[in-house]
Structures are given as structure tokens and as C-alpha cells.
Design a protein that fits this description.
The complex is a heterodimer of chains A (289) and B (275). By secondary structure, chain A is an all-alpha fold. Chain A is built from 14 helices and no strands. The chains are: A mainly alpha (289), B mainly alpha (275).
Chain lengths: 289, 275
């Protein structure tokens, strides 16, 4: 009987596990392999490639553009996800607790709009929004300011804002459900004991939802780390290298410069980033489950 | 007296929320108005010449319809297969005391977190050397594989909430495992399945990077890549058409989300922090 069940379980699991291994795990493992080769997309090196040891990694670490894109990635992660989306999302969730139900619902929908809009469409929306003849400048024009070329002079800021617009809903929903679970009697007790608004926030609310903050930080960092289409269609990584993040640089190296080996080495760095974050996500879930 | 203090206390949050809500709608307004404007500019303006021509032009171009069809084929077949495989895989994970269950579940959770972007270059290399790139089928298979980890994770959690007692009656009647799943479990977890469907469908419907890397003939492009190409070719002039194209492309998933908000928050807490 038991053997029979194990066999059935195996049969049920097999198709899913097989697909995940074939299309997900194997490419991941081969990428480690390819990152030590000089394989190219076209030309002689596409057939006659060989092992080059750590050359791709050495090249990467001495490539100033790699460091620039790493820096840009961190700026984007910190400003648009960890601070931007999270603070706006928390603020919204906090305000919604006290607001009129109808207003809460309408604002929630408006914020969710950014979340459901596909990445490429987000790029167009902000291409228009930050254009020299776009909506931001026409508003500034009313107050007598001359138009600013946002996408040229403040490209990273534009990307950061576009990503906040797109991603805030996630943090908002996370914090809404976390705040819903906070026992109101604890807050009431603190108020009776004379806690002010700031104290209530820093001493009671934030510590109580620290688990949600941790999980949220990890998840939104992962989402922004993988951001490609939005930046690629909005600025193409430019002007110059101003908005080139690791995924953009990786893509350019692998597919425009045809250096697959080098591109893969960069993918490994991204992957290590992701693995670290994903492991901490697992840990945070383990603690809460 | 009570009422006035209540409303006064609520006044500031209400105003702040309205303001933020407007800020979020502001960029989107351009897309909406421009799509009905014969000579759409780049800033928000109520259409001077209201027209449906932008939509007509986009929808009368066979390649655009083809792109929507490709998007639908990819996302729909992906979602259906993901759900079938997840139900199959989740059942033993939820019901049997398997040896490596914990490891499998954490493996799934781990894969859920990884950014897809990081593996697209190696995936392309593998597909290219196996000569299975530029194929709708292999692209869909890849999307199925990448969606499975979280969908199995979520489906298993939904199944855990179904009491085993319900199944016992079916067992006694001599129903097999598949029949038990179909007759007893499925009807109970339909809302959960719905959540997985929407997550999966909208995830691949909106995905740009995967088809952008794996497909290269124009007749295989889904809407995400087709719109991007359109933007490159005509976007700098035809803003109205671009807006109409974008709205048509966004509409299905926006409607999906709105219709299913109740279920979504449920799925949300499942994938997120609090359960």
C-alpha cells in the first residue's frame, strides 16, 4: 500500500518537477559553465569557443561600465523600491485605515492601476509624462517654469519615479494586510499610556509588522532587480550609461556586442544577488509560517 | 458632536489619499485621452477632435491582431497547463507524508524568488544550441516552468485548507486519486485556482523580456514585443495609435484584476507575509 502511494505521488509530481528542471534549473546550471568560456553569438567564437578560466570575471571587475551599472542598480533598488515604493505603500496603507471607505477604495484602485499596467506600457506612459512636451512640463509651464528635458537630464530620477508608480501597489497591499492583523487593543493601551503619534508608529506599529517589512523589502528588491522592459523601452539605458542597470548591461553585452560568455558572467552576478535575497526570503517565511 | 470630530479626524487622511490617488492617475490620463485624439500631443489634454480612428487603425492591421492572438495563445495555454500540473503536484505534497516534502517545498519557494532576468542569457544559449529558439511552443514551455514553483506553492496551501474528512467518503466509495481530486477537492479550491490563473496569465501577458529574447520573427511576437516594435517604428509620430494599442493591450488584465479583487487579496496574503 505504502509503496503504491509513493509511486503515485511520484507520478503526480513528475511532470511539474521535470519541466522545472529542464527549462529552469538546467539553464541556470549551464550558465555557470558558460561564464568560464569565450562563447560568442556570431562569428568564429560561436563554434570554436573554449574555456578561458576566470577571464570573463576578471574583465568584468576591471570594466568601469560594469561598476557604473552596479552602482545604478543599487541606486534604483534603494531609491525606487526600498525607500520609494515601500514608504509610499506604507503611508497609503496607514492613511487608508482612517479614511472614508469609498475614498480608500478609489485610491486603492488608482494605485493598483500602475501595478496591472504591463511594463512596456508603463514606459510609454512615462515617455510621454516626462517628455519635453509632456504633462509634467505643461504643469510646470502654468507656474512659469521653462520645460525640462527630464529623460535626458534627470533620466535616473524618471526611471525611479516610473518604477515607484508601477510597484507601490504591491507594498500597499502587503502593509494593508499586515496592519489589519495588528491588534487594536495594543494601540489603544499605548494611547492611554500617553504615547504620541510618532511613538505609536516607531514603538508599536513598526515593530509589530517588522516581519511584513522584511518580507516586503526582499520581494520588492527582487522585483526591481529583474526590471528590464521598463528601462529598456523608456531610456534604453541612456543617455550614455546614466540608467544602465545590470540587466541592461548584461543584455547589451550578450546580444548587441554578441559576447555571450561575458554576458553570462554578468548574469551570474545578478543570479548571486537573487539567490542571496531569495534565501533570506525563505528564512523570513520560515520564521512566520 | 461625535460626528464632527470623526469627520475632522478623517479629513486629513481623506484629502491626502485623494491627492495621491490623483497623482497616480495623472500619468495614465494621457494614455486614455490620446487614444481618442486625432492629433494626440504628448501631454494630457481632452481630445480636440474625438475619434475612434486610432483604435480602428490598430485593429485593422493584421499583424497587430496576430500579436494579440499570440499573446492569448501563450498566456492561456501556459495558465491552463500550469494549473493542471500544479493541482497534480500539490496533491501528494499536501496529503502524503513524503520524505523530501520539505525540501521540495523550499526549493519551490527559492525558485519563486529568483529574478527571471538573470537566467535569460543562459536560457537563450541553451535554446539556441538545441535549435528550439524562435518557437511559440518552447517559449510557452519555458513560461510554464517558471510559473510552476509559485503556483504549486499556492495550490498546496489552498489544498491544505481542505479538510481530509471530505475525501474519506470518496475513498470509501472506491474513487481513485484523480477522481477524488476532481470531485472533492477541485470544487472547494476554485477561488484559489482562479487566483493562480490570474497571477499566471497576467504575469506572462505583461512579460516583455522573455519573448523579446526567445522569439525573433515578427509573426510570432506577442503584443508586448509588437508594441515595442511599433513604438520604435511609428511611435514618434503616431502617439494616438500607440496609446490605443497600449490601452487595448492593458485592458484584459485590468478587467481581470478589477473583477477579482476579492480573490486577489486572498492570494496576496498567501504569497506574501501573513497567512
Amino acid at each position: 500500500m505504502h509503496k503504491h502511494i509513493v509511486r503515485k505521488a511520484f507520478l503526480f509530481l513528475a511532470p511539474a518537477v521535470l519541466l522545472v528542471i529542464l527549462f529552469y534549473t538546467i539553464p541556470m546550471v549551464t550558465s555557470v559553465f558558460y561564464s568560464f568560456t569565450d562563447k560568442a553569438l556570431v562569428g568564429a567564437k560561436s563554434k570554436n569557443w573554449g574555456f578561458v578560466g576566470f577571464q570573463n570575471y576578471q574583465k568584468m571587475f576591471s570594466d568601469q561600465f560594469f561598476w557604473i551599472s552596479l552602482k545604478n542598480t543599487i541606486v534604483l533598488l534603494v531609491c525606487s523600491a526600498i525607500i520609494g515604493q515601500q514608504v509610499v505603500g506604507f503611508f497609503l496603507a496607514q492613511m487608508m485605515e482612517k479614511a472614508n471607505p469609498l475614498i480608500r477604495k478609489m485610491t486603492g484602485l488608482a494605485v493598483l492601476l500602475g501595478w496591472v499596467t504591463p511594463e512596456v506600457v508603463v514606459s510609454f506612459i512615462f515617455f510621454a509624462f516626462f517628455n519635453k512636451e509632456g504633462s509634467v512640463n505643461s504643469l510646470l509651464g502654468i507656474f512659469g517654469f521653462s520645460p525640462i528635458a527630464w529623460l535626458y537630464n534627470y533620466a535616473m530620477l524618471s526611471v525611479i519615479i516610473a518604477n515607484i508608480w508601477r510597484g507601490t501597489a504591491f507594498s500597499m497591499l502587503m502593509f494593508q494586510s499586515a496592519l489589519d492583523n495588528v491588534d487594536t487593543s495594543i494601540k489603544e493601551a499605548a494611547v492611554i499610556d500617553g504615547a504620541g503619534k510618532v511613538q505609536l508608529l516607531t514603538r508599536i506599529t513598526l515593530p509589530l509588522i517588522s516581519g511584513a517589512i522584511l518580507t516586503n523589502t526582499i520581494l520588492i528588491t527582487l522585483q526591481t532587480l529583474g526590471l528590464f522592459g521598463l528601462i529598456y523601452a523608456l531610456t534604453g539605458g541612456g543617455p550614455g550609461f546614466d540608467t544602465t542597470t545590470l540587466p541592461i548591461y548584461m543584455y547589451n553585452r550578450a546580444f548587441s556586442a554578441y559576447q555571450l560568455g561575458y554576458g553570462t558572467a554578468m548574469a551570474i552576478i545578478l543570479l548571486l544577488f537573487g539567490i542571496g535575497l531569495s534565501l533570506s526570503y525563505m528564512k523570513s517565511m520560515k520564521k512566520q509560517l | 458632536m461625535l460626528l464632527t470630530t470623526m469627520t475632522r479626524k478623517r479629513l486629513i487622511p481623506n484629502l491626502v489619499l485623494i491627492l495621491i490617488g490623483l497623482l497616480f492617475i495623472w500619468p495614465m490620463l494621457w494614455l486614455f485621452f490620446a487614444s481618442f485624439d486625432a492629433g494626440a500631443p504628448l501631454s494630457v489634454r481632452i481630445p480636440k477632435d474625438f475619434t475612434l480612428d486610432n483604435y480602428r487603425k490598430i485593429l485593422s492591421e493584421p499583424m497587430n491582431l496576430r500579436a494579440f492572438l499570440n499573446s492569448f495563445l501563450i498566456s492561456f495555454s501556459q495558465s491552463v497547463i500550469v494549473i493542471l500540473l500544479s493541482i497534480l503536484a500539490a496533491y501528494p505534497l499536501s496529503r502524503f507524508p513524503l520524505k523530501h516534502k520539505g525540501k521540495i517545498m523550499y526549493g519551490m519557494l527559492f525558485l519563486t524568488g529568483l529574478p527571471l532576468t538573470a537566467i535569460m542569457v543562459p536560457v537563450y544559449m541553451v535554446f539556441f544550441s538545441l535549435k528550439i529558439n524562435n518557437s511559440l511552443i518552447s517559449t510557452t514551455l519555458f513560461l510554464i516552468a517558471t510559473a510552476l514553483p509559485y503556483s504549486i506553492w499556492m495550490t498546496k496551501n489552498f489544498m491544505d485548507d481542505v479538510p481530509v474528512v471530505l475525501e474519506e467518503a470518496a475513498w470509501i466509495e472506491g474513487a481513485g486519486m484523480l477522481e477524488t481530486i476532481r470531485r472533492v477537492i477541485l470544487p472547494v479550491i476554485v477561488p484559489g485556482i482562479f487566483v493562480v490563473f490570474i497571477f499566471t496569465f497576467s504575469g506572462s501577458w505583461g512579460n516583455f523580456f522573455v519573448p523579446f529574447i526567445l522569439l525573433n520573427s515578427a509573426n510570432k511576437f506577442p503584443a508586448s514585443v509588437a508594441i515595442y516594435q511599433f513604438f520604435g517604428a511609428f511611435g514618434k509620430i503616431a502617439y494616438g495609435e500607440l496609446a490605443a494599442f497600449s490601452l487595448l493591450y492593458t485592458l484584459p488584465i485590468a478587467v481581470f484584476y478589477l473583477l477579482s479583487q476579492k480573490y486577489m487579496s486572498q492570494g496576496f496574503s498567501m504569497s506574501g507575509s501573513v497567512k
